[in-house]
Design brief:
Elements lengths: L1 H28 L4 E6 H7 L1 H29 L5 H48 L1 E7 L15 H13 L2
Parallel strand pairs: 1-2
Helix pairs in contact: 2-5, 3-4, 4-5
């Protein structure tokens, strides 16, 4: 009888320890992290850095375009000789090509810089908010369904703009 009680107590102890171990493991591996999403277009367009880069690019573009407009105006002038027109036309064509190259290169370079900054800020934001995964989508076309409750676009936009401003 005593041996039976000892075996029963051992069995109960082993079961209790096992249950506690399982609960402990569950608590350790259970994370409070969430999966959320943002609208990439809204995030990019609303980021202050994007707006600043766009203004800078527009100033440079308009400056270069005004030079082309002046060349075009000179080409239309009846007082310009054929030799001058030929030279102006070459300058105009070269200027137009340079403007197109500038426009493409500037947009691409600045977009890369802006996305790098957004990703950096989003990593910090995700750590602070304990997000495990932030999915970026273009107007929800890549995500077939997402509950509006997990859309953090506006919250992240406020955060990255504050970070950008140094706040």
């Amino acid at each position: 009888m005593i041996k039976y009680k000892e075996n029963s107590q051992r069995l109960i102890n082993v079961l209790l320890i096992s249950v506690l171990a399982i609960l402990l493991l569950f608590c350790i591996f259970k994370s409070n992290k969430e999966i959320v999403y943002v609208d990439n277009v809204k995030l990019f367009d609303g980021f202050r850095m994007t707006k600043e880069m766009k203004r800078t690019g527009e100033k440079e573009f308009n400056s270069r375009k005004s030079i082309l407009d002046k060349l075009y105006s000179d080409l239309q002038s009846p007082t310009v000789s054929d030799a001058e027109k030929k030279q102006l036309m070459q300058q105009f064509i070269q200027g137009k090509e340079e403007l197109e190259q500038f426009n493409q290169a500037f947009g691409s370079e600045q977009s890369s810089k802006i996305w790098a900054r957004i990703k950096s800020y989003t990593a910090e934001f995700s750590k602070e908010k304990n997000y495990e995964l932030v999915i970026g989508t273009d107007s929800k076309q890549d995500v077939l369904f997402a509950d509006e409750k997990i859309d953090i676009t506006n919250e992240l936009l406020v955060y990255i703009n504050k970070k950008y401003e140094g706040l």
